[in-house]
Design a protein that fits this description.
The structure holds three protein chains of three kinds. Chain A is α+β, with helices and mostly antiparallel strands. Chain A contains three helices and three strands; from the N terminus they run ααβαββ. Chain B starts with a strand and ends with a helix. Classes of the chains: A alpha+beta, B alpha+beta, C alpha/beta. Chains A and C meet through helix 1, helix 2 and strand 3 of A and helix 9, helix 10, helix 11 and helix 12 of C.
């Protein structure tokens, strides 16, 4: 499967990774090769096979509804590149 | 209910509405973390590293949230899927620390159900529920604290939400309002969500499209997101439907978009930041195995369900002879319904599932009139709540008993009620203190009646000449003379007899 | 004691118990080795002060009679495990400066058992790679050298390259690694040491920077099978904070090393001997089969028909999961932020500057295969093929007790050698990936040397939660192989 530059741009946008124009061609080529490689799976007959969603044959364990966490604003904010008055801050979002 | 039709130049249009309600689950801790969920805490003080999406953090599901979702599904007569799957909904936003929301996609916990709309004319209409699923709430972005920065508080990040999706069965802003009111009522009855739209514990997205009357097609819809009051939902739908009609009548096309409702301008507008099509790339969350619940678990919850509004309303109509409107008003909130029943039945015993109580209750219609009339008026006037009412159900019941045994006339009872609201005292106490017993002594009443007749011969003549309505004035005078205590029925009878002969 | 840094974990444990030296002495000796061999760049962060303090505390515990299972033993922690108060980077610029306010469950258990961490070990960025050349903190050098060209720098394998190199170079007695598609086993093979990826769910993933959630597993890397058994016993165990953690008792893995494998059936999968398999690798595999036969086990040819699809399956599933797992690296709450005029610009610039080429490639592939219209053809398809791969193994285990294969298709190659083509680089994991897809335990141990004097490893794969049989057979093979070679100058 060949990925064109527009598709790569679109994926990069979905993934929020800036790609410079000069990188697009090479990247499109690399990704196309990878997709071509993985496409071999289409030759496998998987009729009637259930997808494997987990390795362990378990079901979801549940926990009790008790407050066991939180109350640690300093720790939550300690690594923030930018914070103010107990909030994380980011460039203003206009809706 | 008359159809909601928008008249355009080219013809008539009808509106197709589907509502998605996000209801915050009542639980102590969050859906996948042990942080607290209470509203109004200082920023970022109810945040686990899991909620903040730190490296290596993993979700573990809260059993009560699962229970609440099942409970809600049962309350909406929905199919409960014993196996359901959590999926990641991937997108980037400042209030979404993981870069994905854990939600449910292909296999939600609740399937199809229904909700009954109580129309104003007393009839009902059943609306379909498409599905119900559990998902994480996002944090809060505050955009107006700073000129160039947005402030992010993650307290809400990870709180459990139930997303309840209706089928596109609603056809008017009014129906939308009825749907939300009813849903909110059911959630509050179940104790699964407090339905507080101002605090944001219940939010509504409205999907709106229009089509020519009589058509069955479904045209492109727009989604109006996060509207936080029922009135705004109705206004937003009104505006949006008209917008669509105008576009179509001018030969334009409606593009599928997400819009916001501006309550100040009463209009919807496009969300600039979400103009790009969202590709959420849903896939089953590999940190979470499928959720499997036992039929026993579901049955246990079902057995413990309270009597819900529809059933309670039907029972109120059958058992107490109330009309649909009155019954509907009383059952809207469980606490009001219980209040009424305490007043009507004469005791404070519980009334779960409408189990019949022994005879000895009061006249239900009278109880209903008092609750819906004077009591609700007092509730409004005092600004109190049902949790802390101006008059207790026991006291109101006692007041009704005092009318029943002749101690008070209806009119006197109103005065006593006003005093009960003011002082908080029991009616019997107030009757004693103020000497408000009604006068039923024939002699005393006769004396008062005679006095008024004697003092107003000209008016007496007017009555004899045909102006019988003036008898009302006479009644008023007698009541004044007896400080309102005379038994009105006796006054009326005596006056009629003496004046008209 | 000639060389404290030559001791195994088991030996160190025994000598410490006898009081023949102190934990401080043992740690100091290893810290010296760390200094002396800094050039191989195995460490991202060294924590000598903390280590000596912990060693002192360890000696006190020993005197008080409260020493833990690994008390006083110097180890290294792969910089993918969040360590409280100590920088954790996942070898990425995007996490530079991140000081976790929490300790991962596994590294916490090792700490609680008294192990002494000398620092955070280098790896391929976000655990994505097979040669430790994608780290933002520079490549790691394999302490082994080619006989034919001792000046060439070789790769230690990856992604746990720093861990493998540090153990092989005797800078630490053991190290934690993680394995998603082979990242413990392959570097163990390249560096002539032993490493095991346990059954998926055996070790908690809480606090480990996630790469591919349905595949990641922590495991020990050390110089002997017994050492790995000791360390896995400490690392493993149910964790209620990890929903994929399995609630099963942890056996005493050391007691599995009985040395007796008579009657066991060893599966030899024919699909692991493709036409192009290197002669050397084939030879060492055959040698391994002989050793086990001589010890009383029976080799049985088996077929794992879907083997050839495992790589493609992995390179759909792992990137898909990682594209979502790495979305949280956005410069907002931790790590490096590149400012932007808008939120989206901040994200895009931060992530472009923060992620290396391999990570970026995998995120993009993952995003693509999950995107609208492609989910069924790729991700859903891959999950189905994955089940077929797992079923192949389950069927094989009806007739055999353990499976023996080569670990890697070659010995360690040179830094910068090999290829620009990502797919070709991925072929390094062709023997280890299927085990990961099925969630089975897989161990690699050194079985011999290549003609050029480089270690070659063999892999043993077991039934789910049957690490004991894997250890038992590995122990026997280790004795038979008698691999005493050491890297140059050690």
């Amino acid at each position: 499967m060949s990925l064109d530059k527009a598709t790569v741009r679109n994926i990069a946008n979905l993934a929020r990774i800036d790609i410079r124009d000069e990188e697009l061609d090479h990247l499109a080529g690399e990704l196309s090769n990878i997709m071509t490689f993985v496409e071999q799976l289409s030759e496998v007959n998987t009729d009637g096979i259930e997808p494997m969603t987990s390795v362990a044959a378990m079901t979801l364990p549940m926990r009790a509804d008790v407050i066991t966490d939180g109350a640690q604003p300093e720790a939550v904010l300690a690594n923030a590149p930018e914070a103010e008055d107990g909030f994380f801050t980011v460039p203003k979002v206009v809706e | 209910m008359a159809s909601y039709i928008l008249q355009g130049e080219t013809g008539d249009w009808e509106v197709v509405i589907g509502l998605e309600v996000h209801a915050q689950v009542i639980s102590h801790s969050k859906l996948f973390s042990g942080a607290a969920t209470e509203f109004g805490a200082e920023p970022n003080t109810q945040v686990s590293f899991v909620d903040a999406g730190f490296p290596g953090m993993l979700p573990v599901i809260n059993e009560i949230c699962v229970e609440q979702a099942v409970r809600t599904g049962l309350g909406l007569k929905a199919r409960i899927n014993l196996t359901s799957v959590f999926a990641r909904k991937n997108y980037f936003y400042a209030d979404l620390p993981q870069g994905y929301q854990i939600s449910q996609f292909d296999k939600p916990i609740g399937g199809e159900g229904e909700l009954i709309l109580d129309l104003p004319d007393g009839s009902t209409r059943t609306v379909g529920i498409e599905r119900l699923h559990l998902e994480q709430d996002a944090g809060k972005s505050i955009h107006d604290m700073h000129p160039s920065k947005s402030f992010i508080d993650l307290n809400r990040s990870g709180v459990a939400l139930m997303e309840i999706v209706s089928k596109p069965d609603l056809r008017s802003p009014e129906e939308a309002g009825l749907y939300l009111t009813k849903l909110r009522s059911i959630l509050r009855y179940l104790g699964t969500c407090d339905g507080n739209m101002q605090e944001g514990s219940m939010r509504c997205d409205a999907n709106v499209s229009v089509r020519p009357v009589g058509s069955t097609e479904l045209r492109t819809r727009c989604e109006i997101k996060n509207v936080n009051s029922i009135r705004y939902v109705q206004q937003a739908i009104e505006f949006e439907a008209r917008r669509h009609v105008e576009v179509y009548e001018n030969n334009g096309t409606i593009s599928q978009e997400t819009r916001l409702f501006d309550s100040v301008k009463t209009e919807t507008r496009s969300m600039r930041s979400k103009e790009q099509a969202h590709d959420y790339r849903y896939f089953p969350d590999p940190d979470l195995l499928p959720l499997v619940i036992a039929q026993d678990f579901v049955d246990g919850i079902k057995a413990g369900l309270p009597e819900l509004p529809d059933a309670k309303k039907a029972r109120f109509m059958a058992e107490y002879g109330l009309n649909a409107y009155d019954a509907g008003v009383l059952v809207a909130e469980r606490i009001s319904a219980d209040f009424f029943e305490t007043v009507a039945r004469g005791s404070a015993a519980t009334h779960d599932n409408g189990r019949a109580k022994p005879a000895g209750g009061r006249d239900a219609k009278i109880a209903c009139n008092w609750v819906m009339g004077d009591f609700f008026a007092a509730l409004n006037a005092t600004g109190k709540t049902m949790e802390n009412p101006p008059v207790s159900a026991q006291d109101l019941g006692a007041l009704i008993d005092l009318i029943g045994d002749g101690t008070l006339s209806g009119r006197l009872a109103k005065d006593v009620f006003a005093l009960m609201v003011e002082t908080g005292k029991a009616p019997a106490v107030l009757v004693e203190e103020k000497g408000l017993k009604q006068v039923t002594d024939t002699g005393a009443i006769e004396a008062a009646v005679d006095a008024v007749i004697a003092a107003n011969p000209d008016k007496v003549q007017q009555v004899k000449d045909g102006k019988t309505t003036l008898l009302g004035w006479f009644v008023g005078q007698v009541m004044k003379a007896t400080q309102g205590k005379a038994n009105p029925a006796m006054v009326n009878e005596m006056l009629a007899r003496k004046v008209l002969g | 004691m000639s060389n404290l840094t030559d001791l195994t974990l088991a030996e160190g444990r025994d000598h410490l118990a006898k009081g023949e030296f102190t934990a401080v002495e043992l740690t100091a000796a290893h810290l010296k080795a760390v200094e002396a061999r800094r050039a191989i760049n195995a460490f991202i962060v060294e924590t000598p002060q903390q280590a000596l303090e912990e060693a002192k505390a360890s000696d006190l515990r020993r005197r008080a009679g409260t020493a833990g299972a690994m008390d006083g033993l110097p180890i290294g922690i792969k910089d993918l495990f969040c360590t409280k108060g100590v920088q954790t980077t996942a070898a990425s610029h995007i996490l530079e400066g991140f000081i976790p306010p929490y300790e991962s469950t596994v590294s916490g258990k090792l700490k609680a058992a008294g192990a002494i961490s000398l620092g955070k070990l280098n790896l391929d960025e976000f655990a994505m790679g097979s040669s430790n050349q994608t780290s933002a903190f520079g490549a790691v050098e394999n302490p082994w050298k080619r006989r034919s060209d001792p000046t060439a720098k070789l790769v230690p394998g990856g992604s746990s390259g720093g861990s493998a190199a540090a153990v092989a170079a005797r800078m630490v007695m053991a190290a934690t690694g993680t394995d998603t598609g082979g990242s413990i086993r392959q570097p163990a093979a390249f560096c002539g040491i032993t490493g095991i990826k346990p059954t998926y769910g055996r070790c908690s993933r809480w606090g480990i920077v996630a790469f591919a959630s349905s595949l990641d597993q922590a495991g020990p890397m050390a110089r002997t099978v017994r050492d790995c058994a000791i360390m896995l016993g400490v690392m493993a165990g149910f964790d209620p904070k990890d929903s994929t953690s399995v609630n099963m008792a942890v056996p005493d893995f050391e007691t599995a090393l009985t040395g007796d494998i008579r009657g066991l059936k060893i599966g030899i999968p024919k699909e692991y001997r493709p036409a192009g398999l290197s002669d050397e690798v084939a030879k060492v595999w055959d040698q391994g089969i002989q050793w086990l036969r001589a010890a009383g086990a029976t080799p049985v040819e088996i077929s794992l028909p879907h083997t050839k699809y495992a790589l493609a399956t992995y390179y759909i599933i792992a990137p898909a999961e990682c594209s979502s797992n790495l979305a949280r690296y956005d410069g907002l709450r931790f790590g490096r932020r590149v400012p932007g005029k808008t939120l989206d610009e901040m994200y895009a610039l931060t992530r472009a500057a923060g992620f290396g080429a391999e990570v970026r490639r995998r995120i993009l592939i993952g995003t693509y295969v999950l995107s609208a219209g492609y989910y069924d053809a790729y991700y859903a398809k891959a999950q189905k093929v994955r089940r077929l791969i797992a079923d192949d193994f389950a069927k094989a285990f009806e007739t055999v007790d353990v499976i023996l294969t080569p670990t890697a298709p070659s010995a360690a190659f040179g830094q910068g050698e090999g290829t620009d083509d990502p797919v070709t680089m991925w072929l390094n994991d062709v023997f280890t990936i299927p085990t990961s897809m099925a969630g089975l335990p897989g161990l690699s141990l050194p079985a011999g040397l290549s003609a050029d004097g480089l270690p070659l490893g063999l892999q043993l794969i077991g039934r789910p939660f049957d690490e004991e049989t894997v250890f038992k057979v590995a122990g026997v093979m280790e004795t038979a192989a008698n691999f005493t070679a050491k890297p140059e100058g050690l």
